[in-house]
Design goal:
By secondary structure, the protein is an alpha+beta fold. The protein has 2 domains: 81 residues, no CATH class; 62 residues, DNA Binding (I), subunit A. 23% of the residues lie in helices and 24% in strands. The longest helix is centred in the N-terminal third of the chain and has 9 residues. The C terminus is likely disordered.
């Protein structure tokens, strides 16, 4: 029951990811319908949902994504921004572009993902001083950050592509800012 399920609002706009247990509760209470289901049967005749759609429109206020390790790692695609190596969550560290000892702050534009080796090599220097240029400048937080993070969470689930990557004209958009 800890399988992720994409939740859509009444107009098929992706709003969030919920656990299968919550999705099944919404479906059995009549608040949502299953749009796409998996082949796994939960009970006889009831299949595990992959995508659900709420029957009533829920207003989703625009909110800014909070600054956290998890969100920085997702923004950077779980890659070291110095060497490009893809790491699991345990192999990554947060690195301050401008070190804290020099007044660097905990901000979206000053934090990047870094592998332990690169973080150790860079030490208490700026990337220019260490001779370790960033592969990509960090993206600032915008009102689109939550949507970007939702897309990055669902990039490996084929059944969600249709709802996460389509624009209003129904054409596939696979580019990041």
């Amino acid at each position: 029951m800890r399988q992720p399920v994409l939740q859509l609002n009444a107009y098929f706009e992706a709003t969030r990811i919920v656990w299968a247990r919550k999705a099944l509760t919404l479906v059995t209470k009549g608040k949502a319908i299953v749009v796409v289901h998996t082949d796994r049967e939960v009970y006889p005749g009831i299949f595990m949902p992959s995508v659900i759609r709420l029957l009533e429109y829920k207003y989703i206020p625009i909110r800014m994504q909070t600054l956290s390790r998890k969100n920085i790692f997702m923004r950077d695609g779980h890659r070291c921004m110095y060497c490009g190596k893809e790491c699991s969550g345990g192999g990554l560290e947060l690195d301050h572009i401008i070190p804290k000892s020099r007044g660097g702050k905990n901000e979206w534009m000053n934090l990047v993902s870094s592998c332990r080796k690169c973080n150790s090599n860079k030490g208490d220097r700026t990337p220019e001083e260490a001779g370790m240029p960033l592969l990509r400048r960090p993206l600032p937080q915008t009102i689109h950050t939550p949507r970007f993070i939702l897309k990055s969470l669902g990039k490996d689930v084929k059944a969600w592509d249709r709802y996460l990557w389509n624009d209003s004209k129904g054409e596939q958009k696979l580019q990041f800012a």
